[in-house]
Amino acid sequence: MLDLPRARDRMVNIHVGRRGIHDREILQAMREVPREAFVEPGFEEFAYEDTPLPIADGQTISQPYIVAFMIEMADVKPGDHVLEIGTGSGYAAAVMSRIVEQVYTIERHPGLAETAKRRFEKLGYRNIEVRTGDGTKGWPQAAPFDAIVVTASGPGAPLALQEQLDVGGRLVIPVGNDPDLQRLLKVTRTGAATYSEEDFGGVRFVPLIGEQGWSENGTVTKVGRPLRHPHPISLPDMIAAAAEPLPDFDDPAFGALFDRFADRRVVLLGEASHGTSEFYRARAAITRRLIERHGFTIVAVEADWPDAAAIDRYVRHRRPRTGAGAPFQRFPTWMWRNTDVAAFSDWMRRRNEKLEPSEQAGFYGLDIYNMSGSIGAVLDYLDRVDPQAAKIARERYGCLTPWQHEPSTYGRAVLTAGYKKCEKAVLEQCRDLLARQLDYAKQDGTDFLDASQNARLIASAEHYYRIMYYGGAESWNLRDTHMFETLEHLLDAGGPNSKAVVWAHNSHIGDARFTEMGVVRDELNIGQLCRQRFGDEAALIGMGTHSGTVAAASDWDGEMEVKQVRASHADSYERLCHDSLVSRFLLDLGRDKTLRERLLERRLERFIGVIYRPETELGSHYADASLPQQFDAFLWFDKTAAVTPLGPEHARTGVPDTYPFGL
Ligand code: SAM
């Protein structure tokens, strides 16, 4: 049974309040008006999703957030007389009627106007007058208005509506020629014949059809007020002016562009997909520079600790761990078993060869999925340094054994069978190991770091898989917190002057507080935690692309495919970068204050992970974000290509037995 009042409250708090609408009257009015009474029969269960829904005559009831946003822009107050053009379902008029003295609303479709009228009567909303007609001509008999809200998009702001504003009155209207994207405009009457204009960014509405709007066939019937462009230079032009073109990856000038971040403790390098070669090569070029010139010694990546440890052994010329299976055998194998990562690890190995162990750069994994690999590594370590402790550890980890290889079923077992939890056992094991740090580390500090990090991973992973079945933000937050804490342990182990480069997806690196993740879903990430811990000593660098190919699967555990990346969405940051016509660039978001301000307003941003579903791209891969708050800099590659996974054709002879990518 749907708890609609609860869903309504949640919608107001999360989709409206947390996205920046703070006007109490609006929030209260939205808590009061039952949106389920304004949707078509059968759509009630979706009434509190933050999305527009279809209504009769091919029209829509607007998204709740946009309704709130437009009412806030119109600055409506108790006592006001307000005109709405485009009654539709009547929902927006109903919300405004809970705030102001009188609402007048006009709808061109008689059926919609009639239905809305009946809804108002049923709910006892008596301060709304509905009329069927062409709203572009306004409602002269009821003018002047304190505010006019138009919920359909026109070619300009109709003159009749401007003239029916009181002095100080506000007209809010979407305008523009593109059916997929218009600008939300606010026109304020400042005097008898004077008006000011503000632009509130991209929106998408159904067309305003009428004498001072569009004709039925889409052409302009009569020109409204010509649009004065509020900003003299377009955003893509401003991006082009600020863009610093990127040289070839192998050109030292590429890395030199990032010297500006050399004094940071942590430089985090994102990626907009897990299967794009340019993102890996850019990160490799930047990291080479930071290691060679600026004393960075930690490369911490979004891979599982025990798997990355195999690369670490290779790049630092250490012997292989006995009994360890081949790394990176689990889905998604191409993410680390690819030609770009192999080339980078070869570079690290060559460079480390000439150096003392303390000066070498290491390669570490931050992620928690490979629990069975970690259990093997802890047992192997204890077998060598303390066989008695190994026996106890075997017993403790035995609790997890049935699930080691399919840990995602562990959470289900805990939930359904009230199964004895392994939590206590794995935590005790981790604590024991850490308590003996001094004894063990005397034998070999690096090995101890490896084993203790594996023990921590097992404890986090046990928790992660236990709560995964509850869904929601908690398991994501646990994973990102574990990744951040692993990074902290690495920095601590490296001493006060240690510096790290992090490679992970944009969704982990871009500060979550400025994306839908944090705003709507309460999720945090490594980027946010680094900023909170290191302040200006952390640099968050994102990456993006317009089109090309990407290596990704269609489903979890599916085969890797090389997929075409769709051209970026018209209302995305990616499209702004594409329209700059600069094919590869660095955009330093801290340099140009005006550009930063212009980019602040939230837009769509594309996130492709190990799965890419172009067919449902808008719903499954785009989210709202404020780019200049999310990142300190952004790298752009207009056209990109899929990574090349390591296959039999890459088999090498004569490689050391630590080579992590053997076949
Ligand atoms: N405010 C509505 C709600 O809360 O459900 C949503 C309105 S819908 C996005 C836009 C409406 O504007 C449609 O119902 C459409 O028929 C109407 N419309 C378009 N041109 C119009 C015009 N010239 N006069 C009056 N209504 C118009």
Describe the structure.
A hairpin with a 5-residue loop joins strand 1 (53-54) and strand 2 (60-61). The two termini are 54 Å apart. The protein folds into two domains: 4-232, Rossmann fold; 240-650, no CATH class. With 663 residues, it is an alpha/beta fold. 50% of the residues are buried. The strands form four sheets. Strands 10, 11, 12, 13, 14, 15, 16, 17 and 20 form a nine-stranded mixed sheet that branches. It has a seven-stranded mixed sheet with strand order 5-4-3-6-7-8-9. Strands 1-2 form a two-stranded antiparallel sheet. The model is unreliable at 223-232 and 416-420 (pLDDT under 50). It contains 25 helices and 20 strands. Helix 12 runs antiparallel to helix 13 (387-398) and helix 13 (387-398) runs antiparallel to helix 15. The chain is elongated. It binds S-adenosylmethionine. S-adenosylmethionine binds next to strand 2, helix 4 and strand 4. Pfam families: Erythro_esteras, PCMT. The active site is at 62. Keywords: Cytoplasm, Methyltransferase, S-adenosyl-L-methionine, Transferase. Its EC number is 2.1.1.77. It comes from Mesorhizobium ciceri.
